[in-house]
Specification:
This protein is of the alpha/beta class and 501 residues long. It is built from 15 helices and 15 strands.
Length: 501
């Protein structure tokens, strides 16, 4: 994308948009939508075109997606099964036990139903204490799940470690689907019989490597999964929900205590004193909020183990329940890779975002100059997020969180009328047309906002739009309509013109 797409917003562009009244904008949109009849559309396209934002909101208010946790010993094929369920290679797979994973939770879909898939990665088995390690991580996965997919290596049969996890499963009362993995062909199916001894009902023979039996296994799992998660239940109505996230010792618990007005959370110079998320209703500047203090995340999720693994999973669960994430930074320390990963975790969750720079009263002039440079370079991808400088320990400027939270949540809930959005894109593409690629110039046929929380836009095009051009559209959307503090998603649907018969 050439530099001309990165220049500041032309005032004349805004004047053109302002000159287009609602009636003209809606007429344009109807005309563009009618033009889609000449293109090959799919059934889901009509669902988007006829979508109702209110129905999308009603569906979201039902609650978070149900959670299915995959547990089992190392090297039984959990990550391979995750990849098979997702239909893509997300989890690292290697033929040795204890291989680390890139992520912990994934959005999955089967038979038209969406759910959250949790891979209990991060196990680092050793000759001593392996049973304890496995049991601890299985316990936290079971606690944060609505149902459990227990994976056993059918070619090895039940082990003492498997039996220990079975005791946890029975005590939890959670629905369990037992999968005997590595049954790659019909000749191996008799080996599944040994898994009946675990007492979890009928074992399902599957092959994560070849996909054999996975469909039946998923059908069984969805049959016991609730439609709405009971472990990450999102409250409907009441105070807006705020997740406090960040590295250990950045001041999350201090901020919660100052907002509450009492020592609600343990604060210590030793990093990592918070383990479980702490919910508390607080009042700041006359506004009531529900704050969730989470454990600090020290390292990459795929390297986390023990308490750090729990912290990562619980932070993800807290984000699921929240509407806006406040990422705290310790300004006395350089912005680190861990800080960036936590910001990206908030972005992946789709929540509104506020950046809070804590311990501001401890900042000297030299560190302030370096901090501004770090923010400009390392946090450029979230330059749209409101920024607040605070001191959680003294309470200085905590009240400034309120307008930042309100702005972010308003943007998160924003909907642009279809007519106005198409008028915006028409004016934009006329002033800055997409570059010609391979002798063809992609064109935007029609666009609509498919959802809010966060705002999601769908563009129907005649060809693939460059990533740089999509970023350009996103930037212009922010410059024109704000969206301060909210991520924006822009999707494409490339459709070809229907051939005349």
């Amino acid at each position: 994308m050439s530099d001309e797409y990165d220049k500041d917003l032309d005032p004349a562009f805004l004047e053109k948009l302002e000159a287009i009244d609602d009636t003209e904008a809606e007429a344009r949109a109807r005309s563009l939508k009618a033009g889609l009849e000449d293109y090959d559309l799919e059934t889901e396209d009509f669902d988007v075109l006829n979508g109702d934002i209110d129905s999308v909101l009603a569906e979201e208010e039902l609650g978070p997606l149900p959670v299915l946790a995959i547990v089992g010993r190392p090297n039984v094929g959990k990550s391979a099964l995750v990849n098979r369920i997702l239909g893509r290679r997300e989890a690292v797979v290697e033929d040795k036990p204890g291989v680390t994973r890139d992520r912990v939770s994934y959005k999955a879909e089967w038979g038209g139903r969406k759910f959250t898939l949790v891979d209990t990665g991060g196990w680092e088995p050793n000759a001593r204490g392996i049973d304890k390690s496995v049991a601890e991580q299985a316990e936290i996965a079971i606690e944060l799940a609505d149902a459990v997919l227990f994976v056993v290596d059918a070619t090895v049969g039940p082990t003492s470690t498997d039996e220990r996890v079975v005791k946890l499963l029975r005590a939890s009362g959670k629905p369990v689907v037992l999968a005997g993995n590595k049954i790659d062909d019909a000749f191996q199916e008799p080996e599944i019989a040994g898994l009946w001894s675990l007492g979890l009902g009928e074992p399902m023979p599957v092959s994560a490597l070849h996909g054999r039996g996975v469909a039946d296994m998923l059908d069984a799992a969805l049959a016991v999964l609730p439609k709405v998660s009971g472990v990450a239940q999102m409250e409907v109505g009441g105070p807006r929900r705020v997740a406090l996230i960040g590295r250990p010792n950045v001041g999350k618990s201090s901020l919660l205590n100052k907002a509450v007005g009492s020592e609600r959370a343990v604060v210590n110079e030793l990093a990592g004193t918070t383990r479980d998320p702490i919910d508390e209703q607080v009042t700041i500047a006359g506004q009531v909020w529900r704050f969730v203090d989470t454990a600090g995340i020290r390292r990459k999720k795929h390297l986390a183990q023990g308490a750090d693994f729990y912290a990562s999973l619980r932070t993800l669960a807290a984000l699921e329940r929240a509407e806006v994430a406040v990422v705290l930074f310790d300004v006395t320390q350089p912005i680190s890779e861990a800080d960036i990963r936590i910001v990206d975790m908030a972005l992946e969750s789709g929540r509104a975002l506020v950046l809070a720079f804590n311990k501001w009263d401890e900042l000297d002039d030299e560190r302030r100059r370096w901090l501004e440079r770090e923010i400009e370079t390392q946090l450029a991808h979230v330059a749209w997020a409101p920024r607040v400088n605070i001191s959680a320990l003294t309470g200085r400027h905590i009240e400034k969180l309120v307008p930042a939270l309100e702005v972010a949540l308003d943007s998160w809930d924003t909907r642009i009328q279809t007519g106005k959005f198409n008028a915006f894109l028409q004016e934009l593409s006329m002033e800055f047309p997409h570059p010609v690629r391979g002798g063809k110039q992609p064109r935007i046929l029609f666009a609509t906002q498919a959802a809010v929380r966060p705002p999601k836009f769908v563009l129907f095009t005649t060809g693939f739009l460059d990533e740089g051009y999509r970023r350009f559209i996103q930037r212009r959307l922010r410059e024109t309509y704000g969206f301060e503090g909210s991520p924006i998603e822009i999707g494409m649907r490339v459709r070809e013109k229907r051939k005349r018969t």
